[in-house]
Amino acid sequence: MVTITIDPELKKAHPAAVLGCVQCKVRVAPSGPELLEETDEVCGRLRKTLAVPDIQNRPHIASTRACYKALGKDPHRYRNSAEAMCRRVLQGKGLYRINNVVEVNNLLSIDSGYSMGAYDVDKIRGAIRWAPSGEDAHYQGIGKEQVNIAFLPVLMDMDGPFGNPTSDCVRAMITEEAKEVLMVFYCFDGEDELPGMLSRAEELLRTHCGGRDFEKTIIR
Predict the structure, then answer these.
(1) Of 192, 164, 179, which Cα lies nearest the Cα of 81?
(2) Residue 205's domain spans which residues?
(3) What is the CATH number of the domain that holds 80?
(4) Which of 28-42, 93-107, 131-145, 158-172 has the lowest mean pLDDT?
(5) For range 105-119, the mean pLDDT
(6) 3-state secondary structure of 108
(7) How far apart are the first and last CA of the chain?
(8) Domain count, the chain
(9) b (16+ CB within 10 A) / e for 28-45
(10) Helices (H) and strands (E) in the chain, counts
């Protein structure tokens, strides 16, 4: 697995911050009907059990918002991805369909409330550090223009920042050319649920993405 560390500045601001990581080889393709059906079932359950104002109170979403506040970022202006996707579901807008790896990532995220990222390992250079980004930092987000990532908890490699719990960079996004992926659970309330989530991620990636050669770890 790629080397990943958490910067002391982030741990000082939010001591419960940890990462759950799964790395494996995959076959990227359009999502099959079974994966889309499972995603639709989770979306349906969310619509039956939640109202939009309830979303920010889901435990993992609330803890992500708390970390943003601790780092000086307004969680209302910069919603984390799990919160944003759940809002889309409850507003009847649905989720974007990209490919099987992205759909597994999004299914896990809306079901659990963890913001997540999936990255092409071949596009990552050197070791990864998870740290608060500096002032005035930006990158090109997926499907967006420049994203203001200042003070967000950002994944960085030798080429700079490429992912965070709100919006990922196009540089390491999952395309049909990706052969090996790193899937990350951004966790801000301790690691108790992460072993089960990592196993669930492995199951879904193996079933729907031809996942193999799995490595799983929790970065503390």
Answers:
(1) 164
(2) 4-219
(3) 3.50.40.10
(4) 131-145
(5) 98
(6) helix
(7) 15
(8) 1
(9) beebeeebbebbeebbee
(10) 6, 10
